[in-house]
Specification:
Blueprint (H helix, E strand, L loop, with lengths): L12 H30 L6 H24 L3 H32 L10 E5 L3 E2 L2 E2 L1 H16 L5 E4 L10 H11 L7 E4 L5 H14 L8 E7 L3 H10 L4 E7 L4 H21 L1
Parallel strand pairs: 1-4, 1-6, 4-5, 6-7
Antiparallel strand pairs: 2-3
Amino acid sequence: MRRQRAKHAPVPVVSSYRGRGFRQAALWLAAAPALPGLALILIRPLGMRFSGFLLMALAAVLLAEGYLQRWASRSRAGWWCQLAFRAALALVLVPLVLIETCVIHEGRKEPPQEPADAVIVLGAGVNGNQPSLSLKTRLDAALVYLKADPDVPVVLTGGQGYGEEITEAQCMYNYLTENGVDGDQLILEEAATTTAENFAFSRELLMEAGVDPSADTVAVVTNDFHIARAKLLAARNGYGHAVGVPAELPWVHLQINYYLREAFAMVKSFLLD
């Protein structure tokens, strides 16, 4: 008699290809934001490292969502994990979107028309002894504002950071006096290293100059993306009526980068400053 051959289950070739194809698709999907993100991080002169990190985070989210989607299609535990992941993502993104809306709204307001009792110019980076692009835009905005009220006391606040030959306050003083501002009008605050310290240390100098920050109007000159956080920290330090004088960065890609970063900085300042 002829012996019957044992029957074997067919090899799941199709499912193997599907698994391999899914992994490749997930990797390609994650690579789309990851590659430009890595480029933005490595090319420092572009000034968009934060946007690069955001793109890398987006790549990680897409990769995780892709694998959770595949797991969810196979088991109930995977479905619950995917639901928890999406819920956590929503809990992070929804508040950030609301904060970003506030940041944009405050940054796009027109400068105040009424005269202020005092002006504070917030410091930013100094390249050697010259103002960085961000600081220069603030100083140019201050020059425009001071033309309408040339006698108001002005506090220039900012200490000395790494790689800076002089303090931010001294750099601002040099720039403003070279452009026609009376040096007797300027008050230097050279110790602050954070925005919160800018307001705390400037408050004492304003009171010495006869200005009551809790009751008088204080115009705060800073970049447009920074206005919302500056007003938050001013209020926390006892400034009763701080108004923003926004300075706009010249290039759109920098505006996008710093506006995105500021939402996260707002969270940090709200919790820690």
